[in-house]
UniProtKB/TrEMBL annotation:
Binding site for substrate: 9, 41, 78, 92
Domain of life the protein comes from: Bacteria
Protein name listed in UniProt: Phosphopantetheine adenylyltransferase
Alphabetic keyword roster: ATP-binding, Coenzyme A biosynthesis, Cytoplasm, Magnesium, Nucleotide-binding, Nucleotidyltransferase, Transferase
Location within or outside the cell: Cytoplasm
Keyword Zinc-finger: no
Broad enzyme group: transferase
Reactions performed catalytically: (R)-4'-phosphopantetheine + ATP + H(+) = 3'-dephospho-CoA + diphosphate
Amino acid sequence: MRIGLYPGTFDPITLGHVDIIQRAMALVDRLVIGVAINRDKSPLFGLESRVAMVQAECDQIAARTAGEIVVHPFENLLIDCARDVGASVIVRGLRAVADFEYEFQMVGMNRALDASIETVFMMADARRQAIASKLVKEIARLGGDVSKFVTPPVQEALEQRYRG
């Protein structure tokens, strides 16, 4: 069984993330969505909320595909998380050249830690390349319409968060 790991903070999950998840399902039998606990970041949503949003989106994707999707929170090294879930492939989404520079360094470090785990880069769909969780949160905070960037349940969660 080919297992892939798609890691991120998913704060919140966007249509860009959903696009990568759907396309990654064609590459693996099981896709683990690693929801990162990153103490260096200050997420808008707590871990439980982020996991719930990701799970809801993944349930819909899994219903349309033949593969299995598992949502897995993690706080350790990415390469250790990949080992923990049995992943032989790490899936990373790219939006722009700036993403590649960071990801290139990450791949080098991960290969030094465990050369048996490959990293696969997937370019975001052209319609989704500008979507970044950080920008989506900023638009929502300022009362803008984020419906082009997230699903309705995530939009509602953003609106509730900023209203409260």
